[in-house]
């Protein structure tokens, strides 16, 4: 049940910002980073698969790990939560979607310009130059090379010990500080600097709403806590706003 006070606030809101985390994509069958470390991958720690040093030490291992995860994303489909967020864009003068997820499910659901704080597993970049590479030669089992400089290519995600994309982070902070209502959806609220965004919004006067089946460090700060999954709660919220 969506609180009547929240529905009233949403009908009056002009600017709404939403931050999504791994819980949203988990409902599409995409395991979180650590949950995906099963079978062959159970023997590795995150530091062996998702840091610049790991890639320097064993680029083939890291490339294959992300190829495995990219296959999981390709085979998945957006769920009802993704689709409801895409529909919410039409309900407000300004709607900003920020995601910590590296899959492309928000875009495939119809969200026009999600801010990808942690990059995209569907993109490929040059490890040496950092440039986006859209065309490259597959090399069988070998790690592909940058067609411009010959360096190794890497997945376009943010690894541990790397800074978030400055432009994306600046956009996310601005959207958080200028919204009337901020949604934190399916995120553990422990990964910084993304975890700071809901609190930035609240200090600027935004109504803070958390959607999560379990409590998080953000829960005590939220004005409304909707305990449940995004695939269940968001479609109901959109329906009650009268825009099925």
Compute the CA-based radius of gyration: 19 Å
Low confidence ranges? none
Counting helices, strands and paired strands, the structural category is: alpha/beta
**SSE arrangement, N to C:** HEHHHHEHEEEHEHEEH
How do the strands and helices of this protein lay out in sequence?
Layout lengths: L3 H9 L2 E6 L1 H5 L25 H6 L1 H17 L4 H9 L5 E6 L5 H5 L5 E2 L2 E8 L26 E5 L8 H12 L3 E5 L11 H7 L3 E5 L12 E3 L3 H11 L4
Parallel strand pairs: 1-2, 1-6, 2-3, 6-7, 7-8
Antiparallel strand pairs: 4-5
Helix pairs in contact: 5-9, 7-8
Task: Please describe the structure with a list of short key phrases separated by commas or semicolons.
244 residues; 9 helices; 8 strands; elongated
What does this structure look like?
The protein has 244 residues and is of the alpha/beta class. It has nine helices and eight strands. It has a six-stranded parallel sheet, with helices on both faces. Helix 8 (197-203) links the parallel strand 6 (181-185) and strand 7 (207-211). Helix 5 (80-88) packs parallel to helix 9 and helix 7 packs parallel to helix 8. The longest helix is centred in the first third of the chain and has 17 residues, at 59-75. The model has no long low-confidence stretch (mean pLDDT 93).
In a few lines, what is going on in this structure?
By secondary structure, the protein is of the alpha/beta class. Helices cover 33% and strands 16% of the residues.
């Amino acid at each position: 049940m969506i609180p009547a006070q929240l529905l009233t606030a949403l009908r009056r809101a002009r600017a709404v910002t939403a931050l999504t985390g791994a819980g949203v994509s988990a409902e599409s069958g995409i395991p979180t980073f650590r949950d995906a470390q099963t079978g062959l991958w159970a023997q590795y720690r995150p530091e062996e698969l998702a840091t610049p040093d790991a890639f320097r030490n064993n680029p083939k291992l890291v490339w294959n790990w992300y190829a495995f995860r990219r296959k999981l994303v390709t085979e998945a489909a957006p769920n009802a939560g993704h689709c409801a967020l895409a529909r919410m864009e039409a309900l407000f003068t300004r709607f900003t979607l920020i995601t910590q997820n590296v899959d492309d499910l928000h875009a495939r659901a119809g969200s026009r310009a999600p801010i990808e704080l942690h990059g995209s597993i569907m993109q490929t970049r040059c490890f040496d130059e950092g440039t986006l590479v859209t065309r490259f030669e597959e090399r069988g089992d070998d790690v592909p090379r940058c067609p411009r400089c010959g360096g190794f290519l890497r997945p376009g995600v943010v690894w541990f010990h790397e800074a978030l994309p400055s432009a994306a982070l600046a956009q996310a902070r601005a959207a958080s500080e200028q919204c009337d209502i901020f949604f934190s959806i399916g995120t553990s609220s422990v990964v910084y600097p993304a975890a700071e965004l809901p609190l930035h919004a609240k200090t600027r006067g935004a109504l803070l709403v958390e959607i999560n089946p379990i409590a998080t460090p953000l829960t005590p700060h939220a004005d409304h806590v909707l305990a449940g999954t995004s695939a269940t709660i968001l479609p109901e919220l959109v329906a009650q706003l009268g825009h099925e």
